[in-house]
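A reminder before we start the practical. When you read a complex entry, don't treat the lines as separate problems. The point of joint prediction is that each chain is placed relative to the others, so the output describes one connected object in space. Small molecules and nucleic acid strands, if listed, are placed in the same frame. In the example below there are three entries. Take a minute to note the order of the lines before looking further.
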Amino acid sequence: MSAKKKQENQPDKTNSSVLVKEPSEKPKTVLMQGNEAVALAAMEAGLDFYAGYPITPSTEVAEVLADKLPQRGGTIIQMEDEIASICAVVGASLAGAKAMTATSGPGFSLMQEGIGYAKIAETPCVVVNVQRGGPSTGLPTKPSQGDMMQSRWGSHGDSPAIVLYPDSVKEIYELTIRAFNLSEKYRTCVVLLLDEVIGHMREAVSVPDISKYRVVNRLKPTVPPEWYKHYDEDQKYLSPVASYGEGYRFHVTGLSHDKYGFPTNKASEIATMTRRLKKKITQNIRDIIQIESFMMEDAKVAVFAAGIVARSAKSAINAVRKEGFKVGLLRPLTIWPFPDVAVQRMLKNVETVIVPEMNQGQIIHEIERLTKEKNDSDIKRIQRTDGELITPSEIYKKIKEVL
Amino acid sequence: MASISQKTIHQYLRHNKKFPHVWCSGCSNGIVLGSIIRAVAELEIPKDDIMMVSGIGCSSRISVYADFNSLHTLHGRPIAFATGIKMYKPRMKVIVVTGDGDATAIGGNHFIHAARRNIDLTVIVINNHIYGMTGGQFSPTTPTNDFASTCPHGNIDPVFDVCQLAIGAGATHVARSTAFHSLEVQNMTKEAIEHPGCSVVEVISACPVIYGRMNKKGNASKMMENMRDNSISLKAVEKLPEEKTKGKIVRGVLKKDTNIPEYTDSYAKLVERLKRGNDE
Amino acid sequence: MNKRFNEIRLSGSGGQGLVLAGIVLANAAVIDKKKVTQTQSYGPESRGGASRADVIISNEEIYFPEATRFDTLLALTQEACDKFLFDLKDDGYLIVDNSIVKNIALVSSTVYELPFTEIALEKLGSALPTNILSLAFLVKISGVVSDKALKEAIERTVKKAFVDINIKAMKLGFELAKKTKK
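Here is the predicted structure of the whole assembly.
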């Protein structure tokens, strides 16, 4: 661990952080890139294994880890494609590793089958998707929020998803650690969704802020192997989980399975499995969901936005507030499961909700779904899919329109 | 074969949990499973150290029956999952059981890249020349002019030679046998497990119920006899004139090279080098 | 200059080292204990094509991280100068390399034209440090970060083998700025 800290202090790489030293020689504030923050935070969270395939705009994650992970005895491998990457990640996780991959749109599409596998096999892992413009190869170096729904529904079949959405480099660091913690706690694939701009942005991050996060680790089972059930419905979700090669010789399959992990066609056993997959998320929504309320207390108009668009919104809201109008922002840090309760409260309390997003309209459907009562607020949209950011002035104008 | 009793084999099966198995009568998959188990038993490798990974298809169902660490993965991807496991836990003996479609069609990319890396996996390709589980569609190893449900007018596709593909991609231990020669499969598997690098064992197998019926290959025992009569050992090939060996399945260890660095070993050395560098 | 909020755009083409210059400037701001964001926009090319780096330096929270109304614009190509000139604030600084940029649609006391690339070639023997040379000039003219912070940022950000030449470039940039400051 001490070796790792030393390595982060290498000043001669344009890519890596520069630590500002206080007289005590303790690193304080660092200029850090978003993608770099993913890599550094993942190691802070205990990353053992990374497999990936190069794709813009996510490559810095792999580049930083290729430098640092072997130095601390971790494992990194560049696979032949994104399908192989997610499969290797799931394999390593089943062998006990904290494992991650990072990609962007086209690669995220290729990974969907493997993500579904991680979900049905209840295998913790983290997938980072630095979103770029689409469809298809689209705009490799330009931002988009086109994968909001794909991150929820991209894999076939039906299962819940946990997707986190940071809006700053510091928050990338925090949510990367959180992504690992949630993946371990709920034994599932957690997706960290980034905007290209935030992945490539550099910001000052305070190191003392980020070194105090709690890290959730897998518990090892203590029962005799013949008693062990890999999917024990009686156990809490953060229950002991065996890893391959440690005496338990369990079976894992992508087929519907019983509590031991063996394939089954029995309706009752299948129902138990699918219920478990759903309930472990829906019953813990309060633990999983995080939102930010920005100047919402007295707001008459609210903006609902995630990631980089929320930053534009804050800028616009500050300007409108200076003119004396009551405007606020609701920002999901957890985009899936969707923060229904907070959104419903917002819909009751404000007259108009503006939903700006860098796609052709995805999250707005969730807001509309929750609009049930007559006196709920009006919903206005701002959508942009030309590879450019939604600017503060666009949101400012929209707010002024509806006021 | 005599040294391993039936009782020993039973100790390696999940007989209380998973039998009867899914395979048709006359299928070769059980024979291959027996050969793999005997190989492991002879090598006296603890069950806890064996990682059996399989893909999707009839042969890939093998992983559920043997009492090892077992992982039944996605179609075509067992080698990719296995690579993750082997990289993270190099001490485990990782055996991949896969079929012709799983390994050379949908999983062809992973197959050649595992060979290129020379990562220490033992890849057993059970080649029955057909997609059996989905009802008999042609695979990259279905012989040209044969019939399958998706080539009812005869197969126009050229075939992959699994072993030549592995050799060309850089696998360092490549062997072929048939399900009829179960002792040979056992010995080849033993050698493959012990080989430090990417090893491929192709086992030509019989699917009498689907492939056999579609191509009038006779019943299960007839197909076994064909494997006996239409195959020839590598040693014999060297002695016989070409016209006598033409069209026959060549059995034997086709490549063995122990001088190529093994991938997890190279990675361990890299980590070691960096550790030394940091200490200095 | 002690502005509350400072938007700087460094613009030109790929290969001119503008992203690196942006990172150096952002690091200097961190050393000066300012809030800072640095973003970039570029095409698929490693060399050629339009490239820009934005740095926002502020004493308060920065929300939108791209520069929209520039306090300072550095333009190292004609294309960049033409494209971004009209988003320069009325009192903003425009700094151009007039060995490349020949037409400027602006006459103001806040325009600085110097042949940075030629100066780098002549005085430093290479065009490579043009980015740091012009950045140092920009820093001295605008006062957006301290000289000391810039020096420290260069030492920490630039690859070791290139620190010396870049420090030389920085000193040269400071000198030029002292001479030409209006």
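Discuss with your neighbour: The two ends of chain C are 14 Å apart (CA to CA). What might explain this?
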